[in-house]
């Protein structure tokens, strides 16, 4: 500080004539460390000076000079240097010199250290010095500069910086050298060898304590640390005393021949207790397998011990224990330890004795060994302990699971794990592998049983049915994916997976639950890739060829080439079948000739028995017997039928049911009626349908009920649709069985006292009501056809009567399709329907290219490509569909949607489907306040968008008919307007639409709305045309006589390109056999409606398209070449017949006696002839028609026919417009004259103008 001003002035100091410059050294971050011991590592220096305890900190760099014992150490902060320099530092008991280190002033770093060399001599015994040099590494320990041992003197030199440290070292070395000693113990000569042997056995102990020993003469010498030598000396002296004492004893040998008894005595520590009791006696050889014991002691004591042992051997009792082979195996594996640990405290042992059988077979017997006699109570206690420790129990599994566990490694791994970790034995029976046994301590049994149950449940071989929506998918998987399925099956071998084809519609997957789930997912993935396209066989000749046996070979070839399957959907309309044979095929085998309709729902058999259809509540029926369908416990609360009866009957009926107890499948029980309006209640137990197996049981139950009525002399019975509720039996099949069984019963028992059978359909179950009404409709048709068992006119009239009957019942046009009366498509001529057993409705649009399925179910379980729903811009979950999707799919769906922000109105946004089975969800954005126009725009935008994507299968609900408040009809109109448009656009991707409705009531309403939509020709159509009337064929001069577009084929493949290729090849093959013929004949101009009907039959029966041009007198035939030839021959015959009959009366006239000049034939109101006249009349007159009569006057008809032929020759092709129908009004008095002689033009003007 006193030089600070001078320094700042820059002046120099003068000292004795010399000039000295002073300046402050800069702050440094390094130190110089000296006096570092040799062998020190850099890490040791870093550790020393990074320790805050000594003022250190983090070392950033260091340089070590091992040769000179110097190091430069650098830190992050200079303040560390100041702290380290202030402190003293000792390292490995040596002082370190620490000073600041300046790189700029190397001349300041020179450190002069004064070194003192210290020498010393110590006298040590050679053995001790050898021990120290060999064991203590003295040179390294004390870092001598030099050392040597000579003539019992230890010389050394060592350098020190400080003389004080040298004195301290001298004291430390002296203390170290004097801590080692040599000592010896004398050993008496008689026991020297035994003592030497005993000490030798303790060699490891001496080595561990670093004590050396050696024998010289009869002495043992020890060298080592003083305290260690003292300890070993005392131990040796004690050994000498013990061996010397034992040398005074005698040794006697005792042999125990029974090894089991010897083992038992050792187990209970018997010999140890004897040695405690008889002090001074030692027993050797107890553990020897030879059974030879050495008794060491005085003669008197040895004699006493020997006597005691022999007496106790005689006292040992053995008790046989009955145990199973599994328990014996458990004891053998555990060496009886679990049991004996418990028995040992009672001086009891359980032992397994080997028993040799007659043929040398070895077995085991469990025996209790005890050193006393025990009474029955004690024996029972011991047996209880043993059986508690070896409890056994079996779990039974099914045969398939047992076989799988036996083959797989899972059970073996489980057995090893249970035994190794828990001492639990698991054993599968050899004779009956379905039994798996557990043997363990009773306390472990519950847990072991649960573990085994978990394994068997996990590995239980169960069965799952894979039944895709379209049965043809199964066929495709079988024909073209079976290799992949079998490969997957092999990969799932550990799960016991096998895939079997049980029928044409489904596959059975057998295996563990996890394996089945994995395989089902795999099959669903394969099935999801399968698409189909429907191709209608509209060209003549196609239907005939596709149904021929030879075509199967062609189809099979195409299927193999293009890896596809082809379904022949050959299902002609029922109306066509009903015109053939003796009434056509029937789904019900009933005595139609002996039946008649009393009303729409009331049928009477010939002997007076009646069958009635009742739509209402079963519990309100006033009959003698009400049938209740129930379960095993006859629980009236188990199904809707029972609950309805219980509500009216009261608890009295419930009490009677409880008295019955239980009911087997196929049985019937009778009770009183309580408060019901009947005399008895018959309770029946049906079975599930099970692919038709339940049908026989249902038929048997109906017979039992009717037989019981005869016994009870009761006359009327009400039967519900048994099995269609909880058992899910198909309604059409149930109604068929009910009709068949009742009519069969009355046929077999014509004198039955039963008068009425009521089939009751609950008015809230529209599907059941429809099933009964459909059965009645079929019955009505069959009854009409059964009355006419011939072809020709009577047959056609019967068919016309059926059509008229249906038309009278319907307020709109209808189409008969597959046994189901479905509203006709009207202007949508390319729409076909079918209603399935489960009530679902299936439609085909656009020549069957687009399939629409309307089903009752949960939309969140759909497995199509995509689910669509309508939602607001904020993605708030309000509607039932949205809630169901989020609940089943997870919150990730809505989170992804909200990340989209606020999408544009009417746009379609796509998101993941979470846990749902579909691939994605389409969210159609709608305004918060919806109108019909908004919903229409939403749907139109969605369908346009989805048509541009490669999406084949889409599911959605009855859009708008839920929370939005629109009616089912409005929803159906909007949906099918769009679907019809999409179908016509021939979108190559979209092939399946599923409309899924959860609530059954809404489902039924939507189906009705769909039927109404197409019945009215679509929402925009106003001019529906009826189908079923034949007159339309005769309106134009050139018209196809018939045609059936209900036949088509479907081609399935997982490659859409191959579908079209397969169709083109199939069509090419079919067209090779199509031929066309033309007949030109003027007689064609004279064809009547009856002649055209004959061509209709020819066209339909032969799959030939027939076009008739009456103006040109030409008939064109196109179709399968063989059919064309046949039809050509038949038409030539028809032409001949027409020409031959031109002068005769019409063929449809009734054959009557010819005495009268004319006959009046009343026409049936349902006949076509009546309808034609009625229609023509009402075109110009509104009068009510009382009756229409055909006047058959041969003479007048002959005049008419001649005039007609003359006009035909005159006008040629223009004749069709020249012949008109005239309605002439006149007085009653003139009618008979006109009928007899025709109209007389002389009276013109008097009775009317012509």
Automatic annotation (TrEMBL):
UniProt cross-references to SMART domains, sorted A to Z: A1pp (SM00506)
Its subcellular locations are: Nucleus
Which UniProt keywords are present, listed alphabetically? Glycosyltransferase, NAD, Nucleus, Transferase
Coiled coil where? none
The answer to whether keyword Secreted applies is no
GO-annotated biological processes: negative regulation of gene expression
Q: What is this protein called?
A: Poly [ADP-ribose] polymerase 14-like
Organism of origin is Paramuricea clavata
